[in-house]
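Structure ticket #2291
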Amino acid sequence: MKRVVFVSHSKNLYGAEKVLLNIAKALASQYEVHVVVPGKGLLKKHLDQVPGIHTHILWMPILTKRVPGVLVYIAFYFITVLRLMLLYKRLAPQVVYNNALHNLYGSTAAYLLGIPNVWHLHEKYYGGSIGKVLLWFVRRFSTRIIFISQYVKETFLQHAPELGDKSLVVYNGIEPESRKIGDSIPGKMMELLEAEVKPVVMGTVCQLSEQKRPFDLVLALETLLKRYPQMVLVFAGDGYYRSELEKFIAARNLTEQVLLLGFVENVPPLLEAIDIFVCPFEGEGFGLVAIEAMALRKPVIAADSGAFPEIIRNGESGLLFPVGDVGALVERVERLIESRDLYQVLGEKGFQASQEFSLIRQAEDISRLIDQL
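Resolution: structure written out below.
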C-alpha cells in the first residue's frame, strides 16, 4: 500500500483545509494516509475521527502578505523544512501532497529528499514580490500540480507556461453527506426562523476579507430594505476584515438587519435556513460553498469573477452579475423574490449541476495522479 503524507499549512477548517480533509478521507482506504498539521484545531479534530488517517503535529508559521508575517516565515523557514525532512525520513512516504500555495515547506522538504510531490493550488497567482517568490517555488519544487479550476490554472500559466506540462485541473467535490440537513442551526438564526413573520434571508459563508467584497452585500441590503423591510443579511465566517465590516454596518444603521455569526462548523443546516445564497467574491479560485448551497437546492447568485462562470451556468443553474455592480446584484435578488417559479427552477437546476462536483470523482482523479508517481 502506497504511503502518502499530506501537509497542511493551517489547522483551521476553511475552504482549502476542507478540501484536504475530504480528499484524505476518500483516499484513506486506498493508501496509508498521514496528515501533518501545524497544531490542534478543527482540521485535526475531524481527521482524528476518520479510521486509517494518522495525524502529526508540526508547528509551521503561516505566510501572510503583511511584513511581520513575512519576517516570521523567513526566520523559521529553514528549521521548519528540516523538521519536515526528519519526519519524512521516519515515515518514508512514496508521495507528499502539499496543500495550498502559501505552504512552501511540504514540497521543498520532499524535493530535497527526492520524494515525488503533488502541489494542490487553491489560490490564483496574484503577482507582486511575494507572488513571484511563490511562483519560483512552484516552478522549482513541484513534481505535479493540481489546480482547482481552469481560472486558477490560467493565472499561473500566463506567467509560467511551462507549468502546463505537469499540471491538471481537478474540480473540488462534496460528500453525499454534505447534501443532508443536520439539526444544528446557530441560535441567532433560530430566532429569525421562529419569528412571527419570517424574513427573507440573504446570506453567504466565507472568510471575511476584502476580496470577498462583503460591503457589496451590505449595500445591496440597504437598497433592498426599502422594498422588503423584513429582509436580513447573514454572514457566516471570520477574518481580519470583520472589524471593518462591523464599522461599515454600524455607519448605515443596519446592525439589527445584519447577523455576523462568526465561524460556523456545521454549514449545511445554516445553508438550509438561507433563502438566497450570494457569492459576491472577486477572483475566487473555485467556490465550494456555492456548490454546497446548490446541492441543497438553494438558488445561488455569484459574481462573474474567478471560477464561478465555470461552475454556474448563468440563468440555468444560478445567476451571475458583474463583480462589484451592486445595482445588478439587487436586480438579481429582486427577480428571485418576485418569481417563485424562477426560484424553484434555479434551485432544481442548481441541484442537478451540483451532482457534477462529487468527491468520488475528485478522489478518482487524484488517485490516478498519485499512482503515476
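Closing remark: The chain has two domains: 3-173+358-372, 177-354.
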